Amino acid sequence: MATFLYKLGRLAFRRRHFVALIWVALLTLAGVGAAGAPPAGNSSFSIPGTEAQKAFDLLEERFPGQSADGATARVVFKAPDGEKMTDAAHKATVEKTVGELADGSEVASVADPYTGNAVSKDGTIAYASVRYDVSGMELEESTKHALEDAAQQARDAGLTVEIGGDALQAVPETGATEIIGIAVAAVVLVITFGSLVAAGLPLLTALIGVGIGVSTIAALASALELGSTTSILAMMIGLAVGIDYALFIVSRYRAELAEGREREEAAGRAVGTAGSAVVFAGLTVVIALVGLAVVNIPMLTKMGVAAAGTVVIAVLIALTMIPALLGYAGRRVKPAGEKSKLLGGARAAKNGEGKPAKANLGTRWASFVVRRPVAVLLLGVVGLGAAAVPAASLELGLPDDGSQPTSTTQRRAYDLLSEGFGPGFNGPLMVVTDAKGSDDPQSAFTEVTDKIKGLKGVVAVTPPAPNKAGDTATITVIPDSKPSSVQTEDLVHAIRDAGADVKSDTGAEVLVTGSTAMNIDVSQKLNDALIPYLVLVVGLAFLLLIVVFRSILVPLKAALGFLLSVLAALGAVVAVFQWGWLSGLMGVEETGPVMSMMPIFMVGVVFGLAMDYEVFLVTRMREAYVHGESPSQAVVTGFKHGARVVTAAAVIMMAVFAGFIGSSESMVKMIGFGLAIAVFFDAFVVRMAIVPAVLALLGKRAWWLPKWLDRALPNVDVEGEGLRAQDDPDEKRELVRV
Questions:
Q1: pLDDT at residue 375 in the model
Q2: Which intervals hold domain SSD (predicted)?
Q3: Which of 65, 225, 368, 476 has a Cα at 20 to 30 A from 534?
Q4: Which class is 371-421+529-705 in CATH?
């Protein structure tokens, strides 16, 4: 591995014009493809294997032409204080608004409040339901404007009017904090390298990689039904790993220059050593992201694969374009430590009787940990354990209009409907009765209705609405609790249990669907998939790290440390987004259940990112150990060369992720915060404290590997042993003995 990458790095350095041209051409091609591609529609949210999805598919089959997947809008009207919606003037205003809404070319149907029993009991609130032929993301802007204009005209007539549903769904915005995150990354790079040129290389290559990845996603979005969140996730992860991977290689390049090597040779060795760590770190991220496919939720699979593709691009750019740009930069990228030598040249020129150079902060910290491993280990584990305590109260759900900020019309419409019709009105359940196998479908429909009316927590049940064939009917059930509550979930399960009795009596199958039931099924599916996903991802990465470190205990320690950091990060997410701690600082206007996919998503992404630091830091330790240093001294040496770079990489990754906290999309906001805090815990507590403490306690046992397994594993040479052997034949013989 190291020898191949060494040759690749030298080739890219020499043929830098050709390499740069290839990447610029790819960026241009992706940009042209994105510019000419049709706009992305709404990403498919089908959930194979769930009852809600089965019912949805049945509706498509038995009720054709009803646009079951089309956008919906609820235009909610409220009369001024002391007046009612049944007053003649207000009734005329609403009917005029309904007529204007029905004129739209994409409108499938509009339900008049006065003929559809959509006026509250006290007469103060009414709503008109609008259904469209296409999804919310596919609606023409003119259609959305017509909806808003109709509502505004009703407001001008004296009514309070708000619009709920997904018809006004917009592409989420990330906000200005994303730019701040990149700016923080730039500052950290300048401090790390002490040079604007060296600092600019990782930023430039990361932006090129993200540009290619996001543009490719945009070009394929319509064909593959990729939602807007997919590109945001790819941008988030692509920026973070792109900067970090380039940082690793540029840092190693400067270290090689400091050892007196020529620039082309230094570039080759940087790619051969740090580049090997980048390849395996990137592989762990890709495994974690692609592994999301085991959940069998197409949207999550597409997000993971798209983000994994961006990571692959980041790895390839780091291995090829960074050495090419180093060739362009020439002497403007200085050897590591050159500034300090210039400032202290007279002192450095002294003979061996002069004082040795002061150890850097990484060396001093590692030396302290090696002397006090038990205390550091206990403090780190207890601290992460305390942070993880809120995770015991984790409540999962999917966001609805009730989780929107109060400044949005969707949230105000949600509140008005709750006020006029009860909290459960915002999450109606649709019960589909398939009586095709029943001898008496009408009796089956009646029995289902009667059983549901007798259940606890039901406010209203509509009469069965059969299809033309008369073999399938829909029943709308209004719970007395809000959509994301435990009571509503219990009601869904109770209806399904009652459906089992109906099937045994009549042969008719009862299915519960609707957005609320779909959210419940998604949460359950994600919970069921978490353990298999964890076993798959951690297991594959564990095998990969055994090959990299040629050890059993080091990969095991890496996996256990990751679990600690993920639990602590989930605890922080619960504290902020569910309990409301620091919610004002984070811009969280509405607390509630944590997004259902957050745990499994954090497991996948954080594991991959955590292994970045593990691979880069511990390969330096193994490199020192293989070349004769004691286990404790190898830990110190690894920190001497790697702590500064890993610290900078972690701060950069945290800044990039934190930049997405300013997003208008609650899902993106939560992911940004969760990943940022997880990187903090993993980099600064696990990798910088727990890892060296455990390695110090294990000593030589940390690098133990059964001889039979050592012979069976391929030698990938991540530490660059083969490159050292090229310089020193005696060392080559020594390495063979090791």
A1: 94
A2: 196-328
A3: 225
A4: mainly alpha
Which pLDDT value is given to residue 734? 41
Phi–psi pair at 427, nearest 5 degrees:
-135, 60
Task: State the Cα–Cα distance between residues 81 and 104, nearest whole angstrom.
Answer: 32
| Residues in CB range of 446: below 8 A, 6 or more apart | 464
Is the pLDDT at 723 greater than 60, yes or no? yes
For 544-600, give the secondary structure using H, E and C: HHHHHHCCCHHHHHHHHHHHHHHHHHHHHHHHHHHCCCCHHHHCCCCCCCEECCHHH
Instruction: Dump the DSSP string for 383-430.
Output: HHHHHHGGGGG--EE---GGGS-TTSHHHHHHHHHHHHH-GGGGS-EE
Pairwise CA distance, residues 409 & 401, whole Å: 9
- Asked if residues 624 and 637 have their Cβ atoms less than 8 Å apart, the reply is yes
130 bridge partner residues: 73, 110
Cβ atoms within 10 A of the Cβ of 454, count?
A: 10
| 135: Cβ contacts below 8 Å, ≥ 6 apart | 41, 42, 69, 70, 71, 166
| Residues 622, 735 contacting (CB under 8 angstroms) | no
Q: Give dist(CA 638, CA 643) in Å, integer.
A: 7
Band of residue 341 on the pLDDT scale cut at 50, 70, 90: very low
Q: Enumerate residues 6+ apart whose C-beta is below 8 A from 128.
A: 74, 75, 77, 94, 97, 98, 101, 110, 111, 112, 113, 118
What torsion, rounded to 10 degrees, do the Cα atoms 625, 687, 8, 182 define? -150
Q: Taking Cα atoms as reference points, which of 452, 473, 470 lies closest to residue 461? A: 452
In this prediction, residues 101-127 reach a mean pLDDT of 85
Residue by residue, DSSP assigns 234-253 as HHHHHHHHHHHHHHHHHHHH
- The CATH number for 422-519, chosen from 3.90.180.10, 3.20.20.10, 3.30.70.100, 3.30.300.30, is 3.30.70.100
pLDDT, averaged across the chain: 83
Q: Rounded to 5 degrees, what are φ and ψ at 359? A: -65, 145
Q: Pairing relation of β-strands 429-434 and 458-461?
A: unpaired
Domain spans, the chain: 72-165, 371-421+529-705, 422-519, 706-738
What does the alpha-carbon distance between residue 510 and residue 220 come to, in Å, rounded to a whole number? 38
Report whether pLDDT(344) > 50: no
Q: Is residue 173 scored above 80 in pLDDT?
A: no
Residue carrying structure tokens 């070319």: 105
Q: pTM for the full model?
A: 0.78
Q: Thinking of the domain 72-165, which architecture would CATH place it in?
A: 2-Layer Sandwich (3.30)
Give the mean model confidence (pLDDT) for residues 63-71.
Answer: 66
Q: Give tens-digit pLDDT for 554-579.
A: 888 888 888 899 899 999 999 998 88
Q: Which is nearest to 703 in space by CA: 544, 546, 559?
A: 546
| Contact in structure between 31 and 285 (CB atoms under 8 Å) | no
Report the chain's C-alpha Rg in angstroms.
30
d(CA 256, CA 419): 69
Please check whether residue 328 is in contact with residue 17, taking contact to mean a CB–CB distance below 8 angstroms: no
Per-residue pLDDT of 594-631, as tens digits, reads 887 788 878 877 877 777 778 778 877 887 887 778 88
Cα 190 to Cα 648: distance, rounded to the nearest angstrom: 10
C-alpha–C-alpha distance, residues 724 and 732, integer Å: 8
3-state secondary structure 2-39: HHHHHHHHHHHHHCHHHHHHHHHHHHHHHHHHHHHCCC
Largest CA distance in the chain: 103
- 465-466 vs 429-434, strand pairing mode: unpaired
Identical fold for domains 72-165 and 422-519, yes or no, is: yes
